[in-house]
Amino acid sequence: MLDINLIRNQPEFVAEKLSRKGVTVDFTDFLEQDRQRRQLIRQTEDLKAEKNKTSALIPGMKKDGKDITPVLAEMKKISDAVREGDEQLARLDQEQNRFLASLPNLPADDVPAGGKENNQVIKISGEKPAFTFSPKHHVDLVEAAKLIDYTRGAKLGGSGFWVYTGDGARLEWALLNFFIAEHLQDGYQMLLPPHILSYDCGYTAGQFPKFEEDVFQLKREDQESFTHFILPTAETALVNLHRDEIMDEDTLPLKYFAYTPCYRKEAGSYRSEERGMIRGHQFNKIELFQYTVPEQSDAALEELVSKAADLVEKLGLHYRVSKLAAGDCSASMRKTYDIEVWIPSMNDYKEVSSASSAGDYQARRGSIRYRAKKTGKPAFAHTLNASGLATSRIFPAIVEQYQQEDGSILIPEVLRPWMGGQKKIDIAP
RNA sequence: GGAGGGUUGGCCGAGCGGCUUAAGGCGCACGAUUGGAAAUCGUGUUUGCGUUAAUAGCGUAACGAGAGUUCAAAUCUCUUGCCCUCCGCCA
């Protein structure tokens, strides 16, 4: 949600920022309606004031035994006028909120305008592994080593699901354990939130109403629209933790991380080059999240990016970091860095972490505030999130980048403690 | 799944149609008192919206949420969220 006062005072400025995201808006009609709306508020509130005054007379008159019939008639008249004003206002409010809620966040000043093609690679770490043999695709590798069972996954859940088996399950869990240990060491608090969330959570995160179709919706038999959904990322849960709260400034920054599977419909987004575990309906992810005061959010974003990058680095994988152009950031975000790992078989980099600052956009939607010490007044907090990390692309990257000529896979050193010291995975007999 | 009870300002808790501008207490802040402190006394102590140069005033709204009855709703009716107790079922 954008600050309506900013739109009132500097509509051209807001429109220009939005155009960098590829969104064209003309606020003329909106501002005119806003003026009318405020005038109606004034009129209706004046009527309410009159109503309150008149109503206060009644008990005294009754006590004195006076005839209150004319006052009752007057009250009736005012009440009807108030009701009419309130109804009209409710309609205008709804219209205005719908419009405001549909506007994406404004990009930060240093974010390039335009779409994907304007993303800037700002860091490349390591080098593409040079194979002395012909490297295999991760699907072939994990099937040979019996790490993932795609066939039975599809039997259980349909296309886009898989089963981790044996060392594959252990490797997956080792990754999560490694991430958890790192985040705990950095002073982040671990959370395990519910996976089923109520509708409001999706609204606060900025995913609803626009992206309602992207999540698995849960509906009660007796209701028309869905009331709950399965979370597409732990971010949706974490951003709602302090919804409708006013926190002490002293408690900020709050640093959390959560492990959840992420459930996404991914309808129509399957591409043939993404066979395997690049894009599934369910994948494991650890999500980092921070609540900060506005002055600290830029530094917090840098911290999150470097934390996520550090994990990929410690796994010994070749990756790069990009700053996304305005149009490639999701709607709620003012600035996003993507960390992309090299997948040899795709000859491309795939996202393993997206680190973003929402500024106060989500805070406004969810009324997430803190009491500013300086003024003593409530102010909107800033929210930031980053994957740390999603395993569904890290796993293939490890398998492909660490593959040996005989089809075995070396286990990155940092993961070995969580795999009983095991150093490599051989192809299954 | 069934039957009850509850939901009120930061917290506890009264109020069950209009003398409530939400009693009283606790906590917190400031002031008085004191050599200093405790105790005591006094004052203040929510958020949104509108108006405004204003974080000053004034107005307005909010007693879990939504709808209704009424001239008037924290208070009555209906729907619903959540919490508690008991019963049933089940991992």
Task: Quickly describe the structure.
The chain has 429 residues and is α+β, with helices and mostly antiparallel strands. Helix content is 39%, strand content 22%. It folds into two domains: 26-102, Helix Hairpins (Orthogonal Bundle), CATH 1.10.287; 116-425, BirA Bifunctional Protein, domain 2 (2-Layer Sandwich).
Give the helices and strands, then pairings:
Layout: H1 4-9, H2 11-20, H3 28-63, H4 69-102, E1 120-125, H5 138-144, E2 148-149, H6 150-157, E3 163-164, H7 167-185, E4 189-191, E5 196-198, H8 199-205, E6 216-218, E7 228-230, H9 234-238, E8 245-248, E9 254-263, E10 282-292, H10 297-314, E11 319-323, E12 335-343, E13 348-359, H11 361-366, E14 368-371, E15 378-380, E16 382-390, H12 391-401, E17 409-410, E18 424-425
Parallel strand pairs: 4-9, 8-14
Antiparallel strand pairs: 1-11, 2-3, 5-7, 6-7, 9-10, 10-16, 11-12, 12-13, 13-16, 14-15, 17-18
Helix pairs in contact: 3-4, 5-12
The structure holds one RNA strand of 91 nucleotides.
